[in-house]
Amino acid sequence: MNNLLCRSIILLFLSFVFLLPGRAQQTLAYQNLMLQTGDLIFVGAKTDQLSGAINRVTQREENASFDHVGILEVSDETVFVLHASPKKGTVREPLDSLVSDSAEKGKQLAVYRLSEETRHCIPEAIATAKSLLGKPYNWSYVLNDTSLYCSDFVERAFRAASLFHLEPMTFKNPLTGKTDLYWAEFYQKLGMEVPEGKPGCNPNGLAASPNLKKLGDLVLAP
After folding, report:
1. Are strands 212-217 and 89-94 parallel, antiparallel or unpaired?
2. pLDDT tens, 74-103?
3. Which of 130, 177, 193, 205 is 20 to 30 A from 8 via CA?
4. Is the CB of residue 24 less than 8 Å from the CB of residue 74?
5. Angle made by CA atoms 77, 155, 198, in degrees to the nearest 5
6. Which InterPro entries does the entry link to (predicted)?
7. Distance of alpha carbon 199 from the chain centroid
8. Which pTM does this prediction carry?
9. Residue 132 placed within a domain
10. What CATH number has the domain bearing residue 120?
């Protein structure tokens, strides 16, 4: 049995399990929002360090500036987030962990929901996301099959439905038209050229998708 067939059988099994009646409660009140399996959670960007560098070269909307994204899953009265974390790699963990970390850093958390027309793809996306767990974080942001970064993880999860699309990456500061100094030094330390123009994706690009609509911001305790 070849690898492609094995992978297809695993995804089909996970999708079936996900849809079993009573297997998972797909909607749950959390903080001030009613969260659903398949919602995407975006972490607000800061103005400095890696967070600021990501946002400077990718921000598309004045009121949306994000540096991280994950997929929510409601199961057994708990909300989990599936994401590619710089500290932990690709993991499924309670949303409380991300909320606590974001509150400590003073970061916004925004929840976006798929359009009704695209929600049918959620079970397969969750199954695919779970099949990607355990991979390390991709610090080069150059696409490969052995490591993942946050928006890459989400795009791959929904790839079968063509929900999001890869675009040429840019690391140029829009104010200067030149490679952002942070990124120039970042890739110099990695011993590689800045991957300008190579295919990729980013949280701000995903948030701007016409297939998503903002549900609201989580109210975090100070």
Report:
1. unpaired
2. 998 999 999 999 999 999 999 999 999 999
3. 205
4. yes
5. 150
6. Papain-like_cys_pep_sf, Peptidase_C92
7. 16
8. 0.86
9. yes
10. 3.90.1720.10
Cα–Cα distance, 186 to 132 (Å, whole number): 26
Identify the domain containing residue 165 by its residue range: 24-217
How many domains is the chain partitioned into structurally? 1
Q: Is residue 117 part of a domain?
A: yes
Q: Which helix (H) or strand (E) holds 186?
A: helix 181-190
Question: What 3-state DSSP class applies to 183?
Answer: helix
pLDDT at 18: 43
DSSP string, 149-168: -HHHHHHHHTGGGT-S--EE
Is residue 95 assigned to a domain? yes
Note whether residue 7 is domain-resident: no
Burial category of 108 from C-beta neighbours within 10 Å (exposed 0-12, middle 13-18, buried 19 and up): middle
Which pair of structure tokens corresponds to residue 1?
């049995």
Handedness of CA 173, 187, 208, 106 (dihedral sign): negative
Sequential DSSP letters for 63-126: TB-EEEEEEEEEETTEEEEEEEETTTEEEEEEHHHHHHHHHHHT--EEEEEE-GGGGGGHHHHH
